[in-house]
Amino acid sequence: MKKFFITGGSGFLGKHLIRKLANYAENTIVYPDSKSCDLIQERSLNQYNSEKYDFIIHLAAWTQAGDFCLRHPGEQWIYNQQINTNLLKWWWQKQPQAKLVFMGTSCSYPEGVINIERNYLQGSPTQSLYTYAMTKRMLLVGAQALSNQYGLEFCSFIPSTLYGNDYHNDGRQMHFIFDLVRKIVDASEGGDPPKLWGDGNQVREIVHVDDFLNIMIKLVNDLKNDILNIPGTQGYTIREFAKVICNLCNYDPSLVEYDTSKYVGAKHKTLDNTKLIEMIGNYKQLELREGLKEIIDWYKNSNRQ
Fold it and tell me: What is the value of pTM for the model shown?
């Protein structure tokens, strides 16, 4: 039997992870929400001191998609540093037997270099995501410091943009792939023509949440005090993603508009998979059209806001 403590369990990745772990009846899974355990408060985790966990999986972060990082850099620094420091301190003082597993972010990589793991802490992250990226870097540095001094064990996985069904649909900004689906589906059902941010030439990469979690679970015991990219199989421009979605929705892609006055983010963001292939060999992922059809169907059947 394994005992898991999960932060951020109500988020997109957290919900999928909990379902996957729950498939094994012998697992014990504790996943408090922010109301019962506010990680910004220093002593919030003490209520869980009596149990000893095998894994602490840290998914919680104070952030949103789109231009949120541009509008809230100061709060992101304060809140995410508090969340991460409180979690690291609890791990060190109360759960040193647990392996800490946490998420990195592709935006921590500096622009203009290969996004390979050895470059994760090098140079300066993308300016528009700078503060959030630096808090993720500091999370890694904190884990490394505690590991070096006290012999604690951790690992960190860095995904490309995750997608799949059961994403939030409550009016908050969505990650780009969900935003494309939302705008194009709405247009195909008689709404306004979709207006996408930027010129559409930004290159992005997506990885289905189930593919990501299958790899993470497979390697969580093998990856020790290290980080690992888990990317999609190929990068595409926003225009290419939009064309596939339009085809699946029977919508004319020439009607899609591009707003170059809006936030663009990094021009090119894909992850190197050399290290991953060295660990597991060549791997398969859900085919792009099949994955996009899944989230189109999810969105059509969801309660839209």
Answer: 0.93
Measure the CA–CA gap between 98 and 3, rounded to whole angstroms.
9
- Computed on alpha carbons and rounded to an integer, the radius of gyration of the chain in Å comes to 19
Q: Domain 3-161+206-230: what homologous superfamily?
A: NAD(P)-binding Rossmann-like Domain (3.40.50.720)
DSSP for residue 294: H
> Taking the domain 165-204+234-275+287-300, which CATH number applies?
3.90.25.10
| Measured distance CA(276)–CA(117) in Å, rounded | 10
| Three-state secondary structure readout of 69-104 | HHHCHHHHHHHHHHHHHHHHHHHHHHCCCCEEEEEC
- Each residue's pLDDT tens digit, 198-231: 889 989 999 999 999 999 999 999 999 999 999 9
Nearest in space to 142 (alpha carbons), one of 83, 88, 102: 88
Q: What would the pLDDT profile of 167-201 be if each residue is shown by its tens digit? A: 877 666 678 899 999 999 999 998 889 998 888 99
